[in-house]
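Thread: Newbie trying to understand structure tokens

Hi all, I'm a second-year student working on a class project, and my supervisor (Dr. K.) asked me to get a predicted structure for one chain before our next meeting. I've only ever worked with sequences, so writing a 3D structure as a token string is new to me. If someone could post the tokens and maybe explain what I'm looking at, I'd be very grateful. Here's the chain:
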Amino acid sequence: MTAFRYLLRAEWTKLRTVPGWVAGIAVAAFLIVGVGLMPGMRGSCGRSACSLPVGPEGQEVTDSFTFLHRTLTGDGSVTVRVASLTGLMAVPEPGQSKPGLEPWAKAGLIVKDGVRPGSTYAAVLLTGGHGTRMQYDYVHDRAGTSGTAAPHWLRLTRTGATVTGEESVDGVAWTRVGTARLPELPSTVEVGLFTTSPQHSETSSETLGLQGAFGGPTQATAVFDHLSSSGNLTADDWTGTTIGALGNASGLEVGGSERTGDGFTVSGSGDIAPAVSGAAGLGVTITQTLVGTFLGLVLVVVVGVSYVTAEYRRGLIRTTLAANPRRGPVLAAKALVVGAVTFVVGLVAAATVVALGTRVLRANGVYVHAVTTATEVRVVAGTAALLAMAAAFAVGLGALIRRGSVAVTTAIVVVVLPYLLAVTVLPTGAARWLLTWTPAAAFALQQSTPEYHQVANLYAPVAGYFPLAPLAGFAVLVGWATVMLGLATLRLRRSAA
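---
Reply by user tm_fold:
Sure, no problem. This is what the structure looks like when written as tokens:
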């Protein structure tokens, strides 16, 4: 152990006394911070103009729909048949739309703590393409079993803090869809019919590998009939309220309701779901502030490779190995020193750019989604870990190849290029494949918001979404680095310096 400490000290002395290596790591940090603070992206949001409500569990949410409701005190139940569900979608031409039902359009029954966006709720509903669902408090979703299209019967029952959703194809035989326990639900609530339809997003045609995306508002219209209720509901007629709607020139985001026969027709736009960034959402995440990481990564792998190959080029490796005959620890010390220095510098750079970059984006009118402190710490520390492990990988590659230019080129192609291709020219499928199997999978450490299966969106790397979970992505890079250092150690032991 004492010998290894001396070895670490010797390697640290080598690193800090070579100006080129010190400058390379410093410039890497400068690029990460500098690119993140460049005022390039602009938006139309102010701090209040694009604010999002916060749900009962602390997440930013979308809560926009047309609500036809009455007040319920205590326990009660509402039953209705969704006779039909149709929709409209915006098209690229301004002010135009086409018939079409968004798969996550929703129509059904909901019980909610008032009409304030973000308040606790539970709903049983029929969707445009995902069947019946029981959803509550924005992030919870459970699929039904007995059908996917209108006409369809729905029933919502409130018993204390428990809300139960049921479905039926004939109004006689009922099947439970799900149950929600809402401890924040007060005694007096609003209950009734609702319709909403989320932002539509789709991939446009590709040209030379380039891929574009189009998104726009949609509107759903549901016809409800056979409406009945039980419990202590107010005697007033059903009241129509548009919750959280912004409205726009196309008119699709402006819903409404009217009585038709023995029921109602309700049209609405928006969503009741966790808020996301990207083509079908609003704004960006803190991941956007770290766009300069790949530039810093280039310099980090150059330093990591040259830290080893320079000794081979100058013949100094013989002196190093003569002083330390056990070759494995020599390589381990080099990787540990470069990785530790890179981690510390990367940690400072990432913390700086996340803290200041969000301010730059917001000053430019870009909405930046809020994240928890734990997520912010994980993203910052993860970026530092990504840089450090890539440096260790580069050390192993340099020791294996031993020729500086070849090793540097290989490191950039293997580590940096897959990420660059994934966020620029490759279609989503190919991009996700690269970010699953190459060392660039570790960029998943920078993802700051989860994907939600019940929210349709283009979950692409360019928008800060990656195919692997953060730790799984980092494990891929660790695996690559371990294999590379293992192969380099094997060659170092079997061949002359």
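A couple of things are worth pointing out once you decode it. The two ends are 24 Å apart (CA to CA). The chain has two domains: 2-42+284-494, 61-274. Feel free to ask follow-ups in this thread.
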